[in-house]
Amino acid sequence: MRTAVVTGGASGIGAAISDRLRTDGLQVATLDLNPGKEKFSYAADVTDRAAVDAALEDIRAELGPVTVLVNAAGMERFKRFTDLTFDDWQKVIDVNLNGTFHCIQAVLPDMLEAGWGRIVNISSSSTHSGQP
């Protein structure tokens, strides 16, 4: 049985993706700041590589190697650009980009060893259409 990890999997699109993967027969673990009530829900900040690695260690111990990763964790801080602080900007970059980097790098060894893997990166439609 394949094991999937879904970041941001405790709510919203991440939770819907997790449910679908379970329906499709995968073992699913979720990473989220606020873990859900589903089995194999882990609290982890994707911007913290040590937290990601620790959660993945626990997931591997319970479910085995991870061969499917869905990066659905994301955030926005929509404001007028003149009102946006660098800290706001940095937090969005940390979650949306660096978090994706950390999670891919953490699971890639499992996929390489298995000779198989899938990574799906989810982004908001606002990346295509923009926001005020």
Characterize the structure shown:
This protein has 132 residues and is α/β, with parallel strands linked by helices. The chain has one domain (3-116): Rossmann fold. The chain is built from four helices and five strands. A five-stranded parallel β-sheet has the order 3-2-1-4-5, with helices on both faces. Helix 3 links the parallel strand 4 and strand 5. Helix 2 runs parallel beside helix 3 (86-114). The radius of gyration is 15 Å and the shape is globular. The mean pLDDT is 92.
Task: Show the helix and strand layout.
Elements: E1 3-7, H1 12-23, E2 27-32, E3 41-43, H2 49-63, E4 68-71, H3 86-114, E5 118-121, H4 126-129
Parallel strand pairs: 1-2, 1-4, 2-3, 4-5
Helix pairs in contact: 2-3
Order of strands in the sheet with most strands: 3-2-1-4-5
Instruction: Enter the CATH topology name.
Output: Rossmann fold
CATH class: Alpha Beta
- SSE-based structural type: alpha/beta
H-E string: EHEEHEHEH
* Secondary-structure arrangement, i.e. CATH architecture: 3-Layer(aba) Sandwich
Largest sheet at a glance? 5 strands, parallel
How many beta-strand elements?
5
Task: Using the CA coordinates, give the radius of gyration.
Answer: 15 Å
Q: What spatial form do the alpha-carbon principal axes imply?
A: globular
Number of helices: 4
Low-confidence stretches: none
End-to-end separation: 44 Å
User: Could you estimate the helical fraction of the residues in percent?
Assistant: 40-55%
